[in-house]
Amino acid sequence: MRESSSEVPRKRILIVFDFIGPYHAARLRSISPNFELVALECSTVSRDTNWLNSCESNIQKRTLVSQGDVTQFGFAELKSRVKQALTELKPDVVVVAGWADRVSLSVLKWSLAHRVPAVVMSESQADDCRRNPITEWVKSKILESCSAGLVGGQTHRAYLESLGMRSDSIFLGYDAVDNDYFTRCVDEIRSSNIDFGVAHELPKKFFLATCRFIEKKNLIRLLEAYAEYAKSSVDSPWHLVLLGDGDLRATIECKIAELQLSSMVHLPGFAQYSQIPKYYAAASALIHASTVEQWGLVVNEAMASRLPVLVSERCGSARELIQPNINGLIFNPLDVGAISDSMIQMASMSESARKKIAEEGHRTIQAWGPGRFQLGLEDACGKAIQKGPSRGSLLSSFLLSLYSRISN
């Protein structure tokens, strides 16, 4: 049973993010007045995407680096900035997103030294990559500095358990988006007299893939699968819109030309948060084909937008959210034929069948909004405060110091 947050009144949570984008802001807004929340942002510029900074004025925030990013600073300077921020902010509990970057490791080192309980947020799964026993042992020692964890779903919980964290100290709710925002925006667009698709020269029916153009998003196989789908389609095939940008754009453009799909595949580029609902409103289905994906928040967004989804079985969201043929389709992302078959299945359905899947998806995702993040985070922080700070070990402290020096 969830403990009442009133039992730990007005404790100060310090939560660390590399960059506060729209997804982080939606979660931060959900935290109840029972806790005082302070966000420690590493930089105002994202290293991975072109998202605009989204932290509202009503959220307390401290930024380590106002120009550029943390990689420009050496270990000593970064450690000094982290120590100064934490000493001034005096948190009752610290919350870090993972254990792979210098700032998170430095925060954990500080919390261990100053006897402040720590919570780790994680969406790693055991099968995300080939696991090295030595690396896993190091992670388990680093995690000894954490009193509780917040994860996306059961596969993420299982991974933290495999590293030695007790199940009763692990809470769910990490992976959430602002469902109401996507539902409201998409409903308004669909009910308006403005046809976004026509205005932006998009086809009448299309599969939408929205992601960074990087290797793990599996866009080359997706294009090959789409080519098979298009050839096998009896009626006019749906088009494919790849929304996003990244290092593989030139490779993707070459593949589109090679497969002679230039008239069928569209690359509108990167879209800011405010523009994404327009694509969901115009699309016929979302397809997310990643070979490695700890979660895949675009699946949450599409389901909130009442859009049917086709999702790779490697995605954490597929394992937690999707009931095959009820609220979405699942496929093997390594099998071009399987991806193509799922596209054929979706496009061959009647409009009423697709609408039923979309509505089931919308019902499912209602339980996965920012409120879920709020409950999970507050319970994790409450548990960490109740248990008290981790005693850790000399080895844990040494490894935190070592890896905070050599990590990105």
In short:
The chain has helices spanning 22-28, 75-89, 102-113, 133-142, 154-162, 179-191, 196-199, 219-232, 249-258, 276-282, 297-304, 316-321, 336-348, 351-365, 370-387, 394-406; strands spanning 11-17, 35-43, 60-65, 93-97, 118-122, 148-151, 170-172, 206-210, 239-243, 265-269, 285-288, 309-312, 329-331. It is of the alpha/beta class.
Describe this structure in words.
The chain is α/β, with parallel strands linked by helices and 408 residues long. The chain folds into two domains: 5-176 and 369-406, Rossmann fold (3-Layer(aba) Sandwich); 179-367, Rossmann fold, CATH 3.40.50.2000. It is 43% helix and 16% strand. It contains 16 helices and 13 strands. Strands 3-2-1-4-5-6-7 form a seven-stranded parallel beta sheet, sandwiched between helices. The two termini are 39 Å apart. The model has no long low-confidence stretch (mean pLDDT 90).
Largest sheet: 7 strands, parallel
Query: What characteristic shape results from the CA principal axes?
Result: elongated
For this structure, the CATH topology of the largest domain is: Rossmann fold
- Estimate percent helicity: 40-55%
How confident overall, as mean pLDDT? 90
Secondary-structure class? alpha/beta
Question: Strand portion, in percent?
Answer: 15-25%
Return the CATH class of the largest domain: Alpha Beta
According to CATH, the homologous superfamily of the largest domain is Glycogen Phosphorylase B
Count the beta strands: 13
Question: Using only CA atoms, what is the Rg?
Answer: 22 Å
Main β-sheet, spatial strand arrangement: 3-2-1-4-5-6-7
Order of helices and strands: EHEEHEHEHEHEHHEHEHEHEHEHEHHHH
